[in-house]
């Protein structure tokens, strides 16, 4: 194993322990990846428990989602990862989680996007330096056909080069970063904002 793969494997394994521990990747849900080279990424094998990942639970795929390792089935959502690495060459890690708050908020939101404004914590997102700017998070309807879902996500990414993450309704969150720590910081920031939003909505008179 190359030093890069060893380092990225450990970063994914550690991310899984953390995200499972926070309750954001329950019951074998979620998938994680990191860029190995300009043409390959390291990704979780489908169906594995994300709190108990080992190096054997990871595989390399090309930028079109083709497995480069015999006998290992890549995540069912591989195409949602590869499209992000192809979208922006600076992306080094992608995380997808299934928290209760992301699931509930994406189901109760009537609109096709959420707007977070006036939260100081927004500054945890890459490229946001003031609570006065807005964080726009699209919500895509879920689909068992991941290629079709990726086709619906792509125009949004192309039209919103500053997008920091998106929700899939009733399913979960995708976010990314230049490094695994950047992506983890964004997951935490999103979870904070989702919880605030749910509490705010619960307080609002009907
Ligand atoms: C048990 S969750 C259903 C599949 C899913 O949404 C997910 O994130 C995990 O899929 P994978 O193939 O990456 O294990
Ligand atoms: Zn999922």
UniProtKB/TrEMBL annotation:
Binds 1 zinc ion per subunit. Residues 10-198 form the Class II aldolase/adducin N-terminal domain. Transmembrane segments: none annotated. One of its GO terms (cellular component) is cytoplasm. One of its GO terms (molecular function) is zinc ion binding. Signal peptide: none annotated. It catalyses: 5-(methylsulfanyl)-D-ribulose 1-phosphate = 5-methylsulfanyl-2,3-dioxopentyl phosphate + H2O. Keywords: Amino-acid biosynthesis, Lyase, Metal-binding, Methionine biosynthesis, Zinc. InterPro entries: Aldolase_II/adducin_N (IPR001303), Aldolase_II/adducin_N_sf (IPR036409), MethylthioRu-1-P_deHdtase_MtnB (IPR017714). Catalyzes the dehydration of methylthioribulose-1-phosphate (MTRu-1-P) into 2,3-diketo-5-methylthiopentyl-1-phosphate (DK-MTP-1-P). Belongs to the aldolase class II family. MtnB subfamily. This is Methylthioribulose-1-phosphate dehydratase. It comes from Stutzerimonas kunmingensis.
